Amino acid sequence: MTETIFSKIINREMDADIVYEDDDCLAFRDINPQAPVHILLIPKKPIERLATADSADADLLGHMMLKAGDIARDQGCGDAFRLVTNSGEGAGQSVFHLHFHILGGRALGWPPG
Ligand code: AMP
Question: What is the rounded CA–CA span in Å between residue 31 and residue 19?
Fold first, then answer.
């Protein structure tokens, strides 16, 4: 996988407003927030998008789902937040390192665009 903005953030070659980190994942504020809380949660492992993850990534992905809830609560969303991943260009993915958008802090409409 080629280097992305997000791998540079993991390697501290680029600044980000980091809100959570552990051995497996990193969370930081989106530079162009779409809600009062808009955090990106990424694995440190270079997975291009959700569609390219495989069964070897099951524990990592489960860990990230649980962390997403913790981060949303820490950011003041309570239990009301949205977790989104855009997998592939056609779905709106623009950075090709897997990331989950954690959105909250306002009423969220459905369906998304
Ligand atoms: P996606 O379109 O789903 O691939 O989401 C990529 C997200 O990365 C967008 O919401 C961007 O605003 C965000 N983004 C791009 N560059 C940075 C950066 N340097 N720091 C934080 N967020 C970024």
Answer: 13
DSSP element (H, E) containing 62: helix 58-74
Question: For residue 32, which atom of ligand 1 is closest to its CA?
Answer: 12
How far, in Å, CA of 90 to CA of 94, rounded?
A: 10
The residue whose CA has the least distance to atom 15 of ligand 1 is 31
- Whether 38 is a known active-site residue: answer no
pLDDT single digits (tens) 67-104 = 999 999 999 999 999 999 999 999 999 999 999 999 99
- How many domains does the chain contain in total? 1
Cα separation, 71 vs 28, whole angstroms: 10
Residue 111 belongs to a domain: no
Task: Kindly report the CATH number assigned to the domain that includes residue 57.
Answer: 3.30.428.10
**What predicted TM-score, i.e. pTM, was given to this entire model?**
0.97
